[in-house]
Amino acid sequence: MEKTSPIVEIRNVSKTYRRGSYLVPVLADITFDIAEGEFLAIMGPSGSGKSTLLNLIAGIDHADEGSIVVAGEDITSLSETELARWRSGNVGFIFQFYNLIPVLTAFENVDLPLHLTGLTKQERREHVETALSMVNLLERLDHYPGQLSGGEQQRVAIARAIVTDPTILVADEPTGDLDRKSAQDVLNLMDRLNTELGKTIIMVTHDPHAAERAHVMRHLEKGVFDS
């Protein structure tokens, strides 16, 4: 099997937070690659730096040291404005608590990221309907989040994450608030996005059942990967 080139290259990345007068090291000189088309699970106890690492890869947070290159773009060198533009075109976010807007329908929630593109209204509709079809919720497009189950809300959130055809999908505890059946449905969907669409997925999880669905599992402990 031909080895694919890395889509994410992380070199000597460190991150420290200030809590009052204390400096709390979170990540310590992290270096690793993520291959294009990979499904990676990052595991570790609370406070190990998992979500911080995910936020750095997604361009939500800044590293104190080191570089992060995603699809050839060194995101550590971008300004806040450039980073916001880069995120909107390159990163799909899947969160534990869905982050849907309750006063918007499923269609309107999925349509939101497309308002940052130059697509026409008709083109946006086609993109939204395609994304909702992928998650088997096209018939619920006029429903509000409060009318959907937790699993359905997470599937709407996944549709929103993929509607812009992002370079990478980042998932922070995507099954953490779901019952086992809904969690399996979401993991099956993520597996399809990876195998059928070739999406690169980086997932942080506490759940070993979720992590087993990934191709590669890395364990983070006190800011460093287990060897």
Protein described:
The structure is a single chain. The chain is of the alpha/beta class. It contains 7 helices and 10 strands. The chain has helices at 50-57, 80-90, 106-111, 121-134, 150-162, 180-197, 208-211, and strands at 6-19, 22-35, 39-43, 65-70, 73-74, 91-94, 168-172, 200-204, 216-221, 224-225. The strands form 2 sheets. Strands 6-7-8-3-9-10 form a 6-stranded mixed β-sheet. Strands 2-1-4-5 form a 4-stranded antiparallel β-sheet, covered by helices on one side. Helix 5 (150-162) runs parallel beside helix 6 (180-197). The radius of gyration is 18 Å and the shape is globular.
Which keywords apply here?
single chain; 227 residues; alpha/beta; four-stranded antiparallel β-sheet
- Derived from helix and strand composition plus strand pairing, the structural class reads alpha/beta
Query: What sort of overall outline do the alpha carbons produce when their principal axes are compared?
Result: globular
**Number of DSSP-assigned strands:** 10
Distance between the termini: 24 Å
SS field, number of helical segments: 7
Rg, Cα atoms, Å: 18 Å
Task: Give the mean pLDDT.
Answer: 89
Taking the sheet with the most strands, its summary is: 6 strands, mixed
Report the sheet-strand fraction.
Answer: 25-35%
